[in-house]
Known about the structure:
alpha+beta, 5-stranded mixed beta sheet
Amino acid sequence: MIYARIAGTGSYLPGEPVSNDDLVKRGIDTSDEWIVSRSGIRSRHLAAADTGASDLARVAAERAIEAAGCEAEDIDLIIVATSTPDYIFPSTAALVQSKLGIRNGGAAFDVQAVCSGFIYALSVAEKFIRSGSNKRALVIGAEVFSRILDWSDRGTCVLFGDGAGAVVLEASERPGILASALHADGSHHPILCVPGTVASGQVIGDPFLRMDGQAVFKFAVKVLGDVANEVLDAAGVQASSVDWLIPHQANIRIIQATAKRLGVPMERVVTTLDHHGNTSAASIPLALDEAVRAGRLRPGHRIVVEGVGGGFTWGAALIDF
Length: 321
Ligand code: COA
């Protein structure tokens, strides 16, 4: 039997942290007290204008490859989860492959599932590996959400940031990913969307992120609890045997409500959003990598990763690390 295991992790946050007070200094009508009490976010990183998602992804990927003890040439599949690609095409994954110096490589493509994107990409990569068609995948979440924020909309712009996270997922005789589940319900698309596009050289519609915060909040808490239980049930595992819950890093209050529903104490929940905000598809691999590098998440630990985002999409995976 072939399984898929995480062999290495990496992440990258661009530039210096931008604090809540820095946003106030930039003229946004908000306060550190409001942002921290509503979201738990204290600072975020914003990529320079000439830096694309593929640049952030490249650094995170190089760190994951180094941690996995392999070479870029050993990678035979690259999947990038992003909603803020460098271009309409080619895919960000193809650009990352090029930036890593891989020539005549395996498949490289993007998945677009917004904040659930990393879980979608991980699950797709697992299926490629378990089928025997690929041996070593780079699964990356990379975003420059600062490009799609309306900086005059204080209800959204203070919540998001830029960054990337990556894992090397490789074939193994020992189980790594024990169960995964993906879901979508597109009827909820109006509550979190960027309802614009580019056509005939012009922006058509609205190119900025729009969100009904309270509707998103309620939806997220419900589906994150449900989907975590779904993967636990699929593997016949109790929540009490999970060492770490690593949820999408959007909002500390959503994370706390989800952990409570699952009966997982906050001491066993990885939270990193205070210093990078909501980095959409990058948030879960960012949190994962920070927990690994801090020595908190160690080989042999059992984890649940889970995400929810625009679409609406949501998903989870139960993993032996
Ligand atoms: N600074 C200061 N005040 C702000 C503000 C800001 N950045 N943004 C909004 N406000 C104000 C509003 O104008 C409103 O003022 P009013 O009562 O005078 O009209 C007040 O704060 C309350 O706004 P409201 O939208 O009701 O706040 P809320 O308690 O619902 O919190 C969110 C807003 C966005 C933090 C919350 O709904 C949330 O966390 N939603 C989920 C968001 C999320 O995680 N999305 C990504 C999921 S993938």
